[in-house]
Request: fold
Amino acid sequence: MNLRFFPNLLLICFILLATSCSQNPVFKEYQTVFNVGDQQEWAAKDLNDQYWEKRIALVPDGQVFWSRTKIDILKTPESLHPYGLQLHVYGEYEVFWDGILIGKNGNPGQEAILDPEGKMWATFSIPTHLTEAGEHLLALRSSLYYFPDHIGIEELEIAYYDDLLTDRLIESSYMHLFAGAFLIAYFYFLFLFLSDKKEYATLIFSISCLLFFILILAEFVKAYVPIHYSMHVIRLQIIGILMLGISFLIPFYFSMQFPFPKRKLLLTIYAGVLLFFFLSKYVFELTANNMALSMWLFSFGIVVFGVYKKMKGARLVLLTLLLSVLIGFATPFNKSLFAGFSLILLGMFYLLSLRIKEQRLAYENSLVQSTRLRLELLKKNIQPHFLMNTLTSLIDWVEEAPKKGVLFIEALAKEFDLFNQIENQTLIPISQEITLCRTHLEIMEYRKEINYFWEEEGIDPEEKIPPAVFHTLLENGITHSLPLEDNSIKFKLIFESNNDYKCYTFLTFATAIRQEANNKKEGTGLKYIKARLTESYQSKWDFTSESTNQGWKNTIKIYS
Amino acid sequence: MNILIVEDESRIAKRIERMTRDIFGDNLQSLKYINTLHEALRFIENNSLDLVLLDLNLNGDNGFDLLTTAVSKSFHTIVISAYKDQAITAFEYGVLDFVPKPFNRERLEQALHRAIANEKIETNEVKFLAIKKRHRIQLIPIEDVLYIKGAGAYTELFLADGKKELHDKSLEKLEQLLSNTFERIHKSYLVKMSEIKEIIVESGSKYMTELKNGERIPIGRTKYKDIKAKWL
Reply:
């Protein structure tokens, strides 16, 4: 592993350490007991409540009921520094501490008449003279009009009032900073996708970032936006939907980066499993848990497959997945969810950066390749075999038949001129290519003293083709063939097209040279043709080259 | 002179043929022109020749197979090629000359003259001698050859490891190619100068040379002065 990761790893460990050692609690909470009815005396500290219920399933129609919780304060607060009480409770209620009303959250008993009031998470200050070390009593006078079966105190915390208020704000402000990073990532990768609409992995990553951003907001919004308990389920549903989205998108993303067989089928099954979890249970924590677990398992499977196939980046992503499960064991669910998700998103980010690097390299390669092809085209006319043989023949013509020699020079000039025109193009009209071939034949006639014939069939002069492709085939045809008995070689170019492809057939009619079995390696000519076709048509082409009874046959198919 | 031209460019082949006929005049017994590798190999095997003019790139094939076969034969080989960068390799294999294209009459004449006049080529850097084994051509590095003994139309190569190999070229032709490092000390012997340890005068004006490995080889009476001067 690279040493660059080491400081980051230290930081993560430090954060984990810091979150795990919180301060010692200043209170001890005993069993809460319940009683349906409404009597003001029930708030009293020393009431005998031994016949009260430990659990009530349902209090219908917004009836008032009371709950009593015995609390030991372990440490008297510093003077002028009051304790506060933080409650996470369904319902509207009044709070009594040692029989004294210290706070009100909504209008218990009047919910059916009045509008909803109050919030799920409420903090109350407790007068200092009531928080000396020793036994105390918390009594709640509640009603639960909207969720009559959610009776009980979900969470109870006593600490310095100031700390209770600020701690949550600090926590949520950090989480919002964190969320902001994902929002920026969302926009960045969205724009990246919009500029290149083929990169779906970028889009999926950007959507995952957005969903994660909203998930953090939905989770921590409770710190500063008052949510009435009747609305709370909506928040949970939003979180559930976000979890569903993220749990599907992360393995989907991995499946794009590490493709495996039967991908569509497995993904459909996985989506079905997720939906089943999402719809079947309304216990939020469990649903989210199941979805997160199946997301992790499925992703793990994909990444392990990637590692097995030695795909790039798979090992580091596997490490982040394993690390996230470690965090899952070490921290409570709502913390591990965010830590785990963000680790996995980092892994995805790493993969994306790998792919972007690959693309950049491929692009740079293609530039180099294009330059190389251009040079190769230029070289055709100055490579010694062509140039020196041509010049030798030319000297001979000039010495023996000067008038013919002049015609020869003219043909040579024409070919050079044509090469100059096409030198920096990637596609040229087929008519220009044909002119090039005919000129080349003219030159070769002077050199080889063979009668060359050129025929065409079905040529559409507007069609385009990479430069010197047929010229190269023609050169090969000339080099590797002997003339027929009448001292002639004929070349024929046929063009056919339909909706699916365009096809050029290039035929050589000649006597084949007896080849000593050395056809194994591909000549530079054929490599040039293939590289040119790839340059202009990527993989949408076919090239075949084979001998026939009459000579040689090359076909180039370009798919649309 | 029996000459073979191997060239796949018809116009160039005709040019070589015309000039060769001109240069040799009546001394020319036969002149054949072939344009494929395969046919050329067959012709070389079945005919007795004095000189082969060879293009190294025939119909896209590499002509070095043909070259190794040609240099193992009794005749001299002159390469005429467009690829000047092949010249060094060709000389290392033991060709008589390398004529780069495009060439004029003077350059071709100069090359052919070497063949006619048994002219020694001091600049030659022959690295190998190609000998014909049963089914293949073997290249023997020159540094392994100690001396060469004429045996009629053939020659025997005496190697550093004590082995003896037969070569198809005559002693005269090898002398021509190897004049840079070897000296003709006797009408039947060609010896690498760097291998001579001592020159001994025996009774009755018999001159001998002792090689570093202890072998003794006679020095021709007429050659003695010359050899001694060169050796010293």
Remarks:
- Chain B touches chain A through 23 residues (CB under 8 Å).
